[in-house]
Amino acid sequence: MNFYEAEIIKCQKRIKKIEENPDPTKFRSNKILYEIERDLNFARLQAWKEGKPFIEGLTPPLMRAMGFEPMALEISADRSMLDRSRFETIRALGLPEYACDRTMVCIDMCLKKELPPPSFIVSHNCACDPIKLAYNTVGRLFNAPVAALDFGLEANNNTLRYVTEQMGEIIELAEKKVPGAKYDESTLLELQEYDRAAYGYLNEIYQLRKRVPCPIAGRDAFRMPLAPGFYPDPKKALEYFRIWRDEMQERADKCVGAVAEEKLRVLWAVSGPFFADPFSILEKRGVSIPWFQFDMAMRWSGVKYPLYGDKTEYGRKLSPLEEEARIMNCLSWGSVAKRWVDDTLFVCRDLKIDAIINFKQVGCTATIGLAKILEDCAEKELGIPTMHFEGRQLDPSYFDPVQVNTQLNVFVDSCLRRKGLA
Amino acid sequence: MEQQLRGLLAAAREDNRTKWALEWRKQGGKVMGLLCSYVPEELIYAAGVLPWHIMGTDQANTSRALVYRSANSALYCNRVLETFLAGELDFLDGVIASDREQDLVRLWDVLVHIKKVPYAEIIHIPTDTSPLYIRQMAKETARLRKSVEEFSGKKITDESLRQAITVFNKMRTLLTELYKMRKREVPPISGAEAMAIVAAATVMPKDKFNSELEALLPYLNKRKLAVEHVHPRLLVSSDTLYNPAYIQLVEQSGCMVAMDDLDPGSRYFWQTVDTRLKDPVYAVAKRYLCRPQHPRMVPWDRQVKQVIDWVKEYHIDGVLEMPELYSLPRQFRVPFFHTQLTEAGIPNISISRFHDMADAAQLRTRIEAFVEMLQAKA
Question: Comparing C-alpha atoms, which of A205, A399, A391, A234 is closest to residue A292?
Fold first, then answer.
């Protein structure tokens, strides 16, 4: 069974469960989420059967506007079945199995034909080395054309122009190399409209996170819905965002937060163990987790960084292609430390965060080297402590539940003492 | 002359390499530490500053560095940070890094965070070499030029840059001459010696290096190398391999390292700056971007082609790739490199290594097995 088939079955089961026995503590909008996901995977499966071209490495609206089906390699890995034999396959190939596990797992998924072969790959350095290198690897394994997409170390008009020019050349190359690839600006504009609206809802949800108690449960702080431009039915996907925003508003208005008596507000950074739920440990102690900080988080929620249509960031109106370049140009952790630290501390101030839990994802070249810098700056500039917690997103062999439980509780104890609440 | 050669071979040894920088400072000059060979050195030279490549300690203990970094991250970067934190590089007036790989950017971030150097700069290196990327590299080079001018207090004119290009091109030409001698059945220098000479170029004042090597070349041309094995002939491919003892270990396994794809090695000096180009900044940028590539560059196929060309040119029997553990660009490229070389009919093997020689015994065993396979094939 391939990944899309597995996802369809998973979504269908979840929809059925909601219809038959809805859990009142969970979002009602989850049903529509599983429906759009199910439909996405049906569409991807169909595209695969029909031999339509798949691509990875650009923004979803741009990939669709070029006539491709977006692959979402590492996102697929995030949702895959846990299987340690994948690392053995990776090791046997000579690849570094100690690299970020989601980038390793997606390579294995392609090799095992759980995902379709790519027709075109864009190896970009916007986020991190493992993604850039994994994409290049996948492209080479399947003899797909591989194009580079570089981002500078600062976001300014020079780098915006640089990124936009590269995107233009990539479009030309894709049209030349891949039958059926054809860029359509009107499609891009249409998808950008849907995404702009969705990001607007995310911004509204962000504003709710400022409330005390925080209406977002820890696990839901991790919720990273794909923007409508990713889905074959962007209109329905946008509807999900609207309903989710309404539900969040409703919870906030009724003060139905994740914790009954909020004592601490913690920012969770980078990533986490997808197979476990450390947030429940924290919530039992009265700890809210208003925000999950990762590379695109602030951009997607329009926090500090504006989105489609904004004229202030670059001092002018941007073209449709420049708008896509803007999205990818200098993500929080894709640049030098200053950007990640400034962005994280900005959110800490904005959401009145008391402490940071920084997940040190094994093999993450983007963030492991930032951990101590963030810790030092958070303490110095905001007087808040940071706890580092090492692990892998998909590999439970790094996770000792007893140790994690102890570590989190000790950290909470020390934070409460600092706040005079112990 | 053999004594003079010994002197040059020892120039970049761990116990020796700082003397060039300290002497420079004694004469009132400034020293710029370089963390990457993609940084255009001509700019620094033109500003009257000594460009000095940072190699990192060969000592295994990196406990200071591990406060800021993970043990499972690029070992070169851990070693360099350790050297800084031990105070061994306090003589540096500045440091320039690149975004060659993300681990290197993070090293630079820590140096800035702990305010370890008075001046710290970082440049973006594009990952491909089409005209668009060369233009961007030229912009970065121009930006770096302004930054170095401010740092040094000296204007880098086009004329001074052209003079610097002349000096560096001379270095590259001299090293190319030296490397041509390695095509011989019995080269006059071993692989370890070649690497040590290139490493010397990265820490010595260029004028001095040029005059030393220029004086030695006639001697080397006639030198009879006392060597046990001239076959099989290997090409060694790696990155941040600064210790010639690694190449020595390979050659002691029963072969000759007749060519390399190394930094420092061929990739440091291969290809001169094109002095016919009107804009010296553009010319420098083009050279640095378009020379033989590091695996962080996206076109892996071109990197393999370069190695295949060298295999033919230097009559190589087998390719030994030695990725440094936790250095991701090369580690990710391993399967592609292996497949392509194999399809080209070139015997090859990839053996991961540490930064120091901690794994010497295991390495030797595996290399010996590869060499025996090549001998049997012959």
Answer: A205
The chain A residue lying nearest B126, using CA atoms, is A150
One domain, residues A272 and A335: yes
Query: What are the structure tokens assigned to B337, written together?
Result: 């490199």
| Domain span at A390 | 186-418
Nearest to B257 by CA among B178, B332, B193: B193
Nearest partner of B264 among B355, B327, B199, judged by Cα = B199
**Same domain membership, residue A106 and residue A254:** no
Q: Are residues A360 and A411 in the same domain?
A: yes
Last residue of a domain, one of A182, A202, A225: A182
Residue of B113, B139, B338 with shortest CB distance to A337: B113
Asked if residue A213 lies in contact with residue A257, where contact means CB atoms within 8 angstroms, the answer is yes
Say which of B102, B123, B299 has its CB closest to residue A129: B102
The answer to whether residues A142 and A7 belong to one domain is: yes
Q: pLDDT per position in chain A (422 positions), as tens? A: 999 999 999 999 999 999 999 988 888 899 999 999 999 999 999 999 999 999 999 999 999 999 999 999 999 999 886 788 888 899 999 999 899 999 999 999 999 999 999 999 999 999 999 999 999 999 999 999 999 999 989 999 999 999 999 999 999 999 999 999 999 999 999 999 999 999 999 999 999 999 888 887 777 777 778 899 999 999 999 999 999 999 989 888 887 767 888 999 999 999 988 888 888 899 999 999 999 999 989 998 999 998 889 999 999 999 999 999 999 886 889 899 999 999 999 999 999 999 999 999 999 999 999 999 999 999 999 999 999 989 999 888 888 899 999 999 999 999 999 999 87
- Residues in chain A whose Cβ is within 8 Å of chain B: 93-96, 98-99, 123, 125, 128-130, 132-134, 136-137, 140-141, 146-148, 150, 152-153, 158, 162, 165-166, 169, 336-338, 360, 362-363, 365-366, 368-370, 372-373, 376-377
Cβ-nearest to A373 among B110, B123, B299:
B110
A159, A182, A205 — which closes off a domain?
A182
Yes or no: say if B25 and B31 are a contact pair by the CB < 8 Å rule: yes
Residues in chain A, total: 422
For residue A81, what is the domain's CATH number? Answer: 3.40.50.11890
CATH code assigned at A343: 3.40.50.11900
d(CA B84, CA A322): 41
pTM: 0.96
Count of the separate structural domains present in chain A? 2
Beta-carbon separation of A372 and B112 below 8 A: no
One domain, residues A18 and A115: yes
Q: Which one-letter amino acid corresponds to residue A204?
A: E
